[in-house]
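re: that chain from earlier
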Amino acid sequence: MAALTVPLGLLAVPPAASARQVTPEIVNGEPGVPGDFPYLASVRSYVGSSYYTCGGTFVSSTKVVTAAHCFFDEDGRRLTDVRVGPAEGTGQPSSRVTASVVDVHLDYSPITQVNDIAVITLSRAIPGVSVVSIPTAVQWQALTEGGDSVRSAGWGTTSSGGSASSQFRVADLTVVPDARCGDYNSSYPVGSVTYRGIGSSFDEATMICAGGATSTGLAIDACQGDSGGPLVAGSTLVGIVSWGSGCAGFDDGSPIRLTPGVYTRLGTYLPWLAERGIGPSQQATAPGAPTGVSAVATSTTTARLTWTAPGDDGGSDITGYQIEESLNAGPWRVVGPASPTSTAEDVIGMMPGATYQFRIAAINAEGTGSYSQPSAPLTMPTAEVSLPGKVSSFTKGKFIKTGRTYKVTVRWALPAADGGTSVTGYVARVGTGGRWSTWSNVDSAVTVVTSLRIGTRYTLQVRAVNERGPGAIASYALTTPRR
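^ sequence. v structure.
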């Protein structure tokens, strides 16, 4: 976040991509993982071949909610050449869709940052994009009481005046009570970090404050380039990255008074969003398409089908799913319905040696939505297969220091028992003190473990994967150097 009452999100990037920062990456946050913040958008506002960059949040396949200040240059001139794309894994999008309309709140003030909200309407829909949940007013209030946990993410700088990140980072934050944030002489502890009140620049009617703390006592904050990005409770949007004083208590490397980050108070703008067809009061439509459809053989004649529910339910509860299959690249045919409360189904009566693909559509009171992208082709085994055994023979390279953390390369050998079919990859996670990262896909028998704290014991867990699924867990302990 930039200086007090200065927007956080703009990063000006001239031709040839030598970045010049003018406003908020997440400081002291955690690296994002693919699938986390699937509704995160990258927003660019162009001036010739240069551009300003912000974050945003997909609320439908054609609309993105972001900050109003992202569409004005340093001299206050309106930026109209806007392009948007969804995250690819944790990286920036490789392609973008142009905006047909940028609807900036008419009462937005670039001086006070009051009403810092805008909605982008894209020139065409982005198929399969995940969308965030918009709360009702009652839900919003329940999710944003002082002390509640919230999260944000962005590609902004990792320090005030620093460089932007090529992979988005995630900030785990705590809502600071309005009374504490608006009182300059007040303070509020988050973990071992104490935040000071902002004072009269904080407008309780249109803003909300949040700050975070690492386990080692560092402040967590948004910074230049994060503006317009989401502040969420679970998967529900509750705020928009707006402005702050420096980033995590520093301004261009110099320590300053530590105050929380300031976010647009989404609860105030729910009627404004509803007027634009966004939120619970919008007219119901058929749901969006499910994503992540996957099929795994569990026997020679049975497969386990899994998927992710659509982020957009069309404004009406999903009442079921329709499943279709294609046999040996033939026409699609209905397999049958599935429960609305589950995103997994067993398909039986399949032919050994035959190749199948599946696609799924969600159903609500308004009708059947679009079908998902097909699953990868699944060739059924001709003999019974089982899960693979444990990988073995772990080895690690040298610990390499990267700033205040370490990274290390770890390798392993194939399991002695592959379950009767080829190992197609691995899943791995790392943990310490009983806390684990999410399982991540690994293509080959090697991974680079990053963001390891100094002098800490970690456990790496690896599972080999075949067409039946992930096998037994193999564990490998490693302890980082003390300096």
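The longest helix spans residues 137-143.
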